[in-house]
Specification:
CATH class of the largest domain: Alpha Beta
Number of domains: 2
Number of helices: 8
Number of strands: 13
Radius of gyration: 20 Å
Shape: globular
Structural class: alpha/beta
């Protein structure tokens, strides 16, 4: 940290989807603050209060990234890495799955900040839960660019890719009901998913999940859907009947491993979004942990 009493985080996404990642972090900080306050009286070590500064960077002008080339996305990541570095951040957190898939191909050695990305967090989880998930049908719901990268082949477990190109534009417009309808009727039902989906049939405990001509014709109790785009996580409150793996929760777990619990005095949130000429427009808000999460 630039100061031992200040933690500076930058979250980066193509639009509003990354707020699903930020939401998990804010919930975590709220819980940590409660625990720290409860332990303060009995603790022999009285740590100074922690200030948290958050920069949320949304490249809304060039969203959705699912329609962009991989080389363009890499360039965007470096642009915002430079921008975030100039703000003196401690962590650069990729809150965009499409960008996260490319992190292993990028060089961040010139920067002083640490990086966290959703792809690595997801893979660590799948590696740890290999035995538990061995009989599950894992479906990777993602953007076209995410799937085109082929990085899902590097995951610890086999996943079935399902491109969902219509969802991000709807979610960016906050049209969650229509996005849910499209998700269920076009991507989780008897409709063509994407040309990269693998063809075959698999029988598990008497339940057959058939995928022919890139069509998911039936789902079973052993189907688990990985949210391969943070925009999709904004629909999570509507997806209660499905088994979901949300990388937004997993990246928080990676961060929390090195986080020392202490009382948090305030969180300052600066949001930046790209305008028509890709310039960054900033707004600022101070968050109160007691009532704004």
């Amino acid at each position: 940290m630039n100061s031992e009493n200040t933690l500076r985080l930058a979250f980066y996404d193509s639009g509003i989807g990354g707020f699903s990642v930020l939401r998990e972090f804010l919930k975590f900080f709220k819980e940590i603050n409660k625990l720290a306050q409860a332990d303060k009286a009995s603790s022999e070590i009285n740590l100074p209060e922690l200030k948290i500064e958050i920069q949320y960077i949304a490249d809304s002008a060039r969203a959705p990234y699912g329609a962009r080339s991989l080389e363009d996305i890499k360039r965007y990541v470096y642009e915002f890495s430079d921008f975030a570095a100039n703000l003196g951040i401690d962590y650069f957190i990729s809150a965009c799955n499409t960008s996260s898939n490319l992190f292993e191909d990028l060089d961040f050695s010139a920067y002083k900040f640490k990086t966290l990305n959703l792809f690595t967090a997801l893979n660590s989880f799948l590696e740890k839960e290999k035995e538990t998930l061995a009989l599950a049908n894992l479906y990777y719901l993602a953007t076209k660019a995410n799937i085109a990268s082929g990085k899902y082949h590097n995951l610890a477990l086999k996943v079935n890719p399902v491109a969902c190109p219509k969802l991000v534009p709807l979610i960016e417009k906050f049209d969650f009901d229509e996005a849910l309808s499209v998700l269920e009727t076009e991507y989780l039902g008897n409709v063509e998913n994407n040309e990269n989906a693998e063809v075959g049939a698999q029988q598990l405990d008497g339940t057959v999940v058939e995928r022919a001509n890139s069509r998911l014709t039936r789902t079973s109790d052993q189907d688990i859907f990985i949210l391969g785009c943070t925009h999709y996580a904004l629909l999570k409150h509507l997806l209660g009947k499905y088994s979901i793996i949300d990388p937004a929760e997993l990246i928080l777990k990676e961060f929390s491993k090195n986080f020392v619990a202490r009382r948090i005095s305030f969180i300052n949130l600066n949001t930046y979004s790209t305008g028509e000429n890709s310039s960054l427009i900033m707004s600022t808000k101070e968050l109160t942990l007691s009532n704004e999460i």
